[in-house]
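Revision sheet: structure tokens.
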Amino acid sequence: MRNTAFDKTLVLIPARMASTRLPGKPLADINGAPMIVQVARRAREADVGRVMVAVDDQDVFNAVKAAGFDVVMTRADHQSGSDRIHEALVAADPDGKVEYVVNIQGDLPTIEASAVHASLRPMQDPAVDIATLTVEIDNEEDKVLPHIVKVVGSPIAENRLRALYFTRATAPYGDGPLYHHIGLYTYRRAALERFVTLGPSVLEQREKLEQLRALEAGMRIDVEIVDSVPLGVDTPADLEKARAILAGRPL
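Predicted:
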């Protein structure tokens, strides 16, 4: 029997057709299924709550529906994935029964169930507004790359940080580990509702990192440390890697 948290949790997967490096990305074939369907399958395997895909394109809607998943059409002019999942949340749960919203990006077809579970663990502390993931950087070159976002946080448990900042710079300075942020989020419903009412913040716009909006507004983000970074599919080469990883999985 599932615990009561299952009924209070909604997994939302935002999908946008617009992609400059990989046009039509949500419908890219991965071993016989569109990528967005593969992501939904991984979310279902995690078995933490109801799974729904939030789309802005009729072809993607039809593909998800045909695969047997819940799907909702959202506006095409959303500025962020957070806005899109909030619209989907309101549509999926108008009565407000959902307490936790897990946001899995639609380009993570190899995401492991353990990563989804890890993103929910910080929610056991009622003081946490948002939870996310990170992995220690072991490649020296990655420490200086601006597209690899670093978490600056204070350790509060063996595998958990309280986020103080997110940056594209190499930080913090000095001896010690650096951490690569993984963009999978779990929101308390009230936190997501508050977040989407906030305008873009100064540091968010400077670093081009949406999560800084929450920190600047005084919201608490805890970060679970995991073992590996899931493959994000942004290029044709990434797509081939995803196909190789999922080869042999049952459809």
